[in-house]
Design a protein that fits this description.
Length: 141
């Protein structure tokens, strides 16, 4: 039977005094290094695998969301690209209203167009060429 001063930590019994000493040692740089050295390589691999899984899941989730071009209940739409020439008084919001069919929110569409065209400002000039995209039904051959 254990005494009250001993705590079972996995398969190893540790006294409260030893636990306090271990925890206090972890707050010093030497304690952190010593703790890392004590870690079993399997634990390090498990941690790295978890971090990698989280990163891949996050990136994959963003790609799925970014490539989503269909509202619920609609047929699949494909993204098509074209080049346009800016005319007098055109704005990014005018272009968004003309080419975004509602498959994407306005702000995201404008940010995407600015990013594709390496724009740091939303100012457009007459005669300027922009690459834009729009959504349409898949073409069948």
């Amino acid at each position: 039977m254990e005494s009250e001063d001993t705590i079972m930590n996995g398969m190893m019994a540790v006294t409260k005094k030893e636990q306090v000493r271990i925890i206090a040692g972890l707050f010093s740089p030497a304690g952190v290094i010593a703790a890392v050295r004590r870690l079993d390589i399997r634990i390090i691999h498990a941690i790295l695998a978890a971090v990698l899984l989280i990163a891949v899941t996050g990136i994959g989730g963003r790609m799925i969301i970014a490539n989503a071009s269909v509202k619920e209940g609609q047929n699949a739409l494909e993204r098509y690209y074209t080049s346009i020439t800016i005319e007098d008084c055109d704005t990014l919001w005018d272009i968004e209203a003309r080419y975004n069919t509602g498959a994407e929110n306005k702000e995201q569409y404008i940010r995407s167009i600015m990013q594709m065209n390496h724009m740091s400002s939303d100012i457009l000039y007459s005669g300027q060429n922009l690459i834009i995209y729009y959504y349409g039904q898949p073409q069948t051959n």
